[in-house]
Amino acid sequence: DAKTTQPTSMDCAEGRAANLPCNHSTISGNEYVYWYRQIHSQGPQYIIHGLKNNETNEMASLIITEDRKSSTLILPHATLRDTAVYYCIVRPGREYGNKLVFGAGTILRVKS
Amino acid sequence: NAGVTQTPKFRVLKTGQSMTLLCAQDMNHEYMYWYRQDPGMGLRLIHYSVGEGTTAKGEVPDGYNVSRLKKQNFLLGLESAAPSQTSVYFCASRFGGQVAGELFFGEGSRLTVL
Known about the structure:
The complex is a heterodimer. Chain A is mainly β. Chain A is 0% helix and 46% strand. Chain A is built from no helices and 9 strands.
């Protein structure tokens, strides 16, 4: 699986957009980008995933660069409840066994 | 629909004791996983299963065994617990037929080995 690089931590003001970057310069053509978050030692929660195109759901937007070497997760209006560790993961879509390897992630602190 | 349920949620063991963590999912998922998370770190994959009767090693399998006798259950065993196995253990599952699908996680089992 391609490795990912994320900043260790970020701060965001409540109500503002939170933009979390992820670098995955060794990504392969069949690898998807996934984002999960973990709130205060709970089980990780799926946010969004994408292959090439930008994606949006009720939680967030995922912007993938044209060369696919980096992506940005956008929380449009961050709230205090969005304070969590955010994990960017890259892996093939059709890998037998489908291991999902988590790195250290980005600690996002949303402040009032 | 309970999702992914882990039992027990908390356990304290003495070095050398054995125990089994149970993960149960009611979503008819093919794939199941066991991760461990140490303080301030990300999750590390211990073992996983792609279907009933199958298991495979992850990143950190030593000291653990697993079994998937029923599709809905994935058991993680510690035969002789060591203090280094003090951690929070997370189970996860997902559909096997999807090209790219989300993992559903349990709430975690906190294990302390003295």
